Amino acid sequence: MKAIAWHGKHDVRCDTVDDPEILNPRDAIIRITSTAICGSDLHLYDGYIPSMQKGDILGHEFMGEVVEVGAKSTLQKGQRVIVPFTISCGACYHCDKHQFSACENSNPADTQDIGRELLGQPMSGVFGYSHMTGGYSGGQAEYVRVPFSDVGPLVIPDDSIEDEKVLFLTDILPTAWMACENAGIEPGDTIAIWGCGPVGLFAVQCAFLMGAERVIAIDHFPRRLELAKQFGAECLNFEESKVYEALQDMTGGIGPDACIDCVGLEAHGAFADNIWDQIKVSTFLATDRAHVARQVILAARRGGRVSMPGVYGGFVDKFPLGQLMEKGLTLKTGQTHVQHYTRPLYTAIAEGKLDTTFLISHTMPLEDGPEGYKKFHDDQDNYTKIVLKPGMERAAA
Amino acid sequence: MSDDTHTLRRDDAPVTASKDTSAERALFAEAVTIARPAAELYDFWREQTNLARFMDNVVSIEPAGGNRYRWTVKAPLGREVSWEAEITHEVPGREMTWQSCDGAEIDNSGKIEFVDAGKRGTVVRAIIAYEPPAGFVGQMLAKLFGREPRIQARRDLHRFKQLMETGEIATSARNRRVHEERYGRDGQPAGASA
ipTM above 0.85? Predict the structure, then answer.
């Protein structure tokens, strides 16, 4: 089959590899019909995430048709499913508490050691996201092996709902929803959201659905800010305005009730601390560029909340821990417990309460994946979201 | 400081976490919490031949009369090493201890406990003591345990947990070829079902 494989920093290729097979009783094989490139895939593309190996198949946002099932799978051939990016067994203590991204069993015993060394505790299994999360082949491919297929995949019963509407149930929509839950939004709140990428733009919608009165969206790409505005957000362009000053003024000197960091470890912008971070990261003295992580803490109101769905990979220099403490902030973060959110969010989409298709700027054949990564990386203003379609006709050169 | 401090010679940490355990006999403990009742886990473990289903380096475990079992374990260069061990004490549903018999190339003994953990299930704790191998034979035998015995034990306990909680042992391989590439032709089993 064809698959998008990682070969190193800024080097992904469309390789021909051998097909997946059923290995365990609860497995299923899915024929991919749509798969997206995620902003967090760019962290792999930029070489920020440790424990990648040459040839690893990428992709953790995908859906398709069940073509083969193991003896204990509850899926049936021909069903159309979306597949959460987190792999969860459904039987361990954490899965029982619906903390699916903390699943204790989906990461194989040998690869759990990497996370244990780096984080103190191992991570769960994740599709196509380094060997720290198991080294599972991802879904930017024609076919994928899905373990614990009786727990993760959500069957999409309505054929009239196109892929593009439900594809983002796999990651970014639940991620935005959980980010807003973690922000503890109360009716009447003012919420500031850093980053108008796919998660940030969904978070704007989710925050309003949860009762926020005002949402202030922060970015520097005009087209992305324009999209945030369409959903009712007020916009801040950090290249034109001082973010902290603007936020304090816009909230009457109080600060936002909650700040959501939808950026993570690769913050853009020519800020003094960001430049310092870049020097440290490039000389291996630190791992993350954490401008936004610092700013959300400084901007939030006293006693307010900070939510961090953005991905961080390791150590951060000059983290304002004292400010976090003295202001009495609550900080919540984490990989998304996707399986907990897929059903209610599917209903919200089906009822038209959430718009998902606006996000997709480009649809390409799977084979053009490498070009897609480059464009998504280099031209973020125009490429808000790329969907890859196996089997789609390639445009004539 | 009063003399009372002298009576507080040890904190409440398990002895296996001590910083000054003598090196004459290596001692370690690994624990895992499994969301199944202690009795079920104990019964599965007591059927010693079951252990080969999730222990990576174990080729087979055969009954050898009474409470004795013959363990056959992978060694470097495609070789196998074999010894007998005896279950010396057991409290059904709670714990069992074992001791390698005379003639074992690595003298080893240990205890496996199944402690009720309420709604979390059961804490399974393996406490293992062995003579750190010396000399050429010893070093070869150290290798036969794979990496380090402690890491090996931890991974085996996690595979036990996976098997008992999910009915299968997780593999991230895409297909059989990749699985064998990662774990060897007769490596960690995939497709196991409790």
Answer: yes
